[in-house]
Amino acid sequence: QVALQFPDELLADAVEVAARMEAATGAQMYVLGDTTYGSCCVDEVAAEHVGAEAVLHYGPACLSPCRQLPVLHIFGQQPLDVGRCTEAFRELYPERQSRVVVLSDVVYAHAMGELEQQLCPEYPNIIFSRLVCGDPPGPTVPGEERKFGRQFSVEAAGGLQDYAMFYVGAEGLALTSFMLTWNRCPFSSFNPVTGCGRRETLNVNRALMRRLYLVERARDAGVVGILVGTLGVAGYLTVLQHLRELLCRAGKRSYTLAVGKPNPAKLANFLEVDIFVLVACAQNSLLDSSDFYRPVVTPFELELACNPAREWTGNYLTDFRDLLPGACAHVELPPAVPAAEAVPDVSLITGKMRATNLCDPPASQLPPSTALACRDQTRALAEISPAASFLESRSWRGLEQQLGQTPISKAVQGRRGIAIAYEDEGCEQ
User: Fold this and answer.
1) Predicted pLDDT at 271
2) CATH number at residue 215
3) NCBIfam families per the record (predicted)?
4) Which residue, 76, 96, 112, 177, shows the most beta carbons closer than 10 Å to its own?
5) CB 387 within 8 A of CB 272
6) E-only strand ranges, 329-406
7) pLDDT under 70 in the chain at which residues?
């Protein structure tokens, strides 16, 4: 039994592909559509519902490693004018000794071999990245980079910061993630759709300033909502537990929410939450929350705000697995500091004093979800739960049934027309 996962734009071909696959292999095929989260991730949960033993993922992919099912990626082949791309590269890098790393969107990976044949004889210091599905076996060697499903090795003495980046693909989340992660490297790109090359300069600085502002908002937050943005990327349960522990030690309340794809209407239902943190793949975690009622940050930004041992070094992490124990970028939580010895801090947004130390986990915890509670205990619960306290202060708390109190009446004809002028209302002269 094999699951075939298609993005929305390719679902029209799913039936024919599934029929041909069944005829060729004899295996039973299931088509997965309308994924709960981003279509770039493998939907292992939906595949497990049908008992699939493997997943074939069609279309663009973030190449995040999966938990347990074997996955075969079929990226597709979008057309690329290799000659025009070569000319754009020469215009952007006229110096033949330039050190450049070439990255590409997965749908143009099929043409990278031909582009390499065109450029390598002229540029001896050019490096082409390779696509790697899943985690490659063995440890990394000095100078080797393994991120976002790309793998390449640099030979310069100064490391990767001595190289420039050339991206083949349209502007999108993948390019933004690359630019934030390798923000010390100058970026250029070639858009195969428009056939134009350009230097990417100001977008990174503006994006970094926006993200660092969100870190300051996270420091001021008292209630944090942890949004589950993936159920298939390996390590998502571990990072959820890590974030809960981090927020508890920082003296903040946290709520774990599974709402599917986040949008302003969904998150506006949780007014008691000051800020949200999205646990998703490296591409989908960089959510533009400018239209949201509350901002949405990444796990790395939340750790910058709540972990005093982690300092901003200029390296931005979009993959939450880099924060887990055993990763190269993992930083242990420092020991608790008594409140009397804590060094106060001033918020750059509100101007108020705030504590920056980590405390021991509180002894009193919320009652388990299966415990019974009387309605009279609402006020007592409000003292330890921000959500209950917020609900207590609201004048409207939802619809009440009032069984047996509402009189029964027959259906009658209502008003007709539009709200500005019903038919039974007189017209003003």
Assistant:
1) 85
2) 3.40.50.11860
3) diphth2_R, DPH2
4) 177
5) yes
6) 344-346, 353-355
7) 34, 135-140, 202-205, 337-343, 355-357, 360-399, 426-429
Q: Are residues 102 and 225 in the same domain?
A: no
Q: How many whole angstroms from its chain centre is CA 184? A: 22
Of 357, 373, 397, the last residue of a domain is 357
Q: What is this structure's pTM?
A: 0.76
End-to-end Cα, the chain, rounded Å: 73
Alpha-carbon torsion (417, 422, 426, 429), positive or negative: negative
In-domain check, residue 343: yes
Cβ-count burial of 9 within 10 angstroms (0-12 exposed, 13-18 middle, 19+ buried)?
Answer: exposed
d(C-alpha 363, C-alpha 377), whole Å: 20
Ramachandran region of residue 417, left (φ > 0), alpha (ψ -120 to 50) or beta? Answer: left
Joined together, the tokens standing for residue 24 give 């060729």
Q: Same domain for 221 and 351?
A: yes
The tokens of 130 are what?
């390779």
Q: Are 301 and 214 in contact (CB under 8 A)?
A: yes
Q: Is there a domain that residue 321 lies in?
A: yes
Tell whether 339 and 210 lie within a shared domain. yes
Domain ranges, residue 240: 206-357
Number of domains in the chain: 3
Would 411 be classed as within a structural domain?
no
The pLDDT value given to residue 210? 82
CATH number at residue 17: 3.40.50.11840
Write down which residue in 357, 384, 411 finishes a domain. Answer: 357
Residue 366 lies in a domain: no
Q: ∠ CA(161), CA(111), CA(69), 5° rounding?
A: 80
| C-alpha–C-alpha distance, residues 357 and 87, integer Å | 55
The single-letter code of the amino acid at 206 is: R
Q: What is the pLDDT of residue 256?
A: 92
The whole-number pLDDT of residue 396 equals: 66
Q: How many angstroms separate the CA atoms of 384 and 42, rounded?
A: 39
